[in-house]
Amino acid sequence: xxxxxxxxxxxxxxxxxxxxxxxxxxxxxxxxxxxxxxxxxxxxxxxxxxxxxxxxxxxxxxxxxxxxxxxxxxxxxxxxxxxxxxxxxxxxxxxxxxxxxxxxxxxxxxxxxxxxxxxxxxxxxxxxxxxxxxxxxxxxxxxxxxxxxxxxxxxxxxxxxxxxxxxxxxxxxxxxxxxxxxxxxxxxxxxxxxxxxxxxxxxxxxxxxxxxxxxxxxxxxxxxxxxxxxxxxxxxxxxxxxxxxxxxxxxxxxxxxxxxxxxxxxxxxxxxxxxxxxxxxxxxxxxxxxxxxxxxxxxxxxxxxxxxxxxxxxxxxxxxxxxxxxxxxxxxxxxxxxxxxxxxxxxxxxxxxxxxxxxxxxxxxxxxxxxxxxxxxxxxxxxxxxxxxxxxxxxxxxxxxxxxxxxxxxxxx
Length: 413
Ligand code: PMP
Description:
Blueprint: E1 24-28, E2 31-34, E3 39-42, H1 57-69, H2 78-90, E4 96-100, H3 103-118, E5 122-126, E6 139-140, E7 150-151, H4 158-161, E8 164-167, H5 172-182, E9 186-191, H6 205-218, E10 221-225, H7 239-242, E11 248-251, E12 262-266, H8 268-271, H9 290-303, H10 308-329, E13 335-339, E14 342-346, H11 355-360, H12 363-375, E15 378-379, E16 388-389, H13 396-412
Parallel strand pairs: 3-15, 5-8, 5-9, 9-10, 10-11
Antiparallel strand pairs: 1-2, 2-3, 4-12, 6-7, 11-12, 13-14, 14-16
Helix pairs in contact: 1-9, 2-9, 5-6, 10-13, 12-13
């Protein structure tokens, strides 16, 4: 009935040996329960949004209130204004902000805005980076680094792909070459400031510096896709961690408290181009809906609990250190890239700093690990490219249970 049995391809078990994915009916705190009532410690966190865990009481209250008072008005509401103000208080670089329903829409519109503002059409994106499912970002590298892209999905026109130059992440030289060739046609460099989509991969300082310097020199905008990173590593954007400032920022995932949402914003003079103030059209029947926004408000409140991010980091560090010690003991090649409360597990001897490194990691070993953990009641992302996300309700006992499951799994690998 449903293609592949899933409403988003990343949910399928194709990348971890195939078969039907497990079906879940209920979540509570750090746990998910499957259709047979079995409990799993959840590190998928719905691919990132669920930082507070499942059915957090404050979010349940906010969503219940929205359900009782109406979930959709098709008019402005005070909730969306308050939410926009709270976002700007957390991320001052969001001088103005517009809400959407998904991360895809947020990045898509940020790119449209960059094209309108610069009057140019090309973008640079980085190999293996995921920015949603609109045509322009479903593009792979052409015949070499710093060449025009080719469609990465059927149905994406070759003419669209030719507007994209794909460059390896953390490769300042390839980036410089791409800007040298295409700089005068370049509207934006679109980048996850810390990669979350081929593992967790931080930018090398020189690379990040090159992105901003080269964009400035050629007159392109820098668009940060913070759909995963914002509010994941600290309360707000990762920009203060990195010491950078993007022109436009796309948000999603966490900020809706588990309900559908996205947002984009940034420099006021660029945002003034958005309709109805300006000529850049973007709309949404569901955009800024009271349910998502009220869940988002409750979430932002809860995320300001003192020590919350330190707690996530401590648990993630304990997991990462424990996994590395076990992999050592059982002779399994494992690289863990961790930033704060998120990390990735790549089965390889080589450090992972580009998509090619992540691709070279052993998919069969990851599949065996995923399945062994699933059998032992630990839910991981069903792809070697995706990250583990630690959530607030994960307890020390959950960490210990996870490491025990990992030891048993490594032993049979
Ligand atoms: N950008 C990034 C970095 C993402 O990880 C994702 C989703 N995985 C998106 C954009 C698209 O967001 P959505 O699925 O909400 O459309």
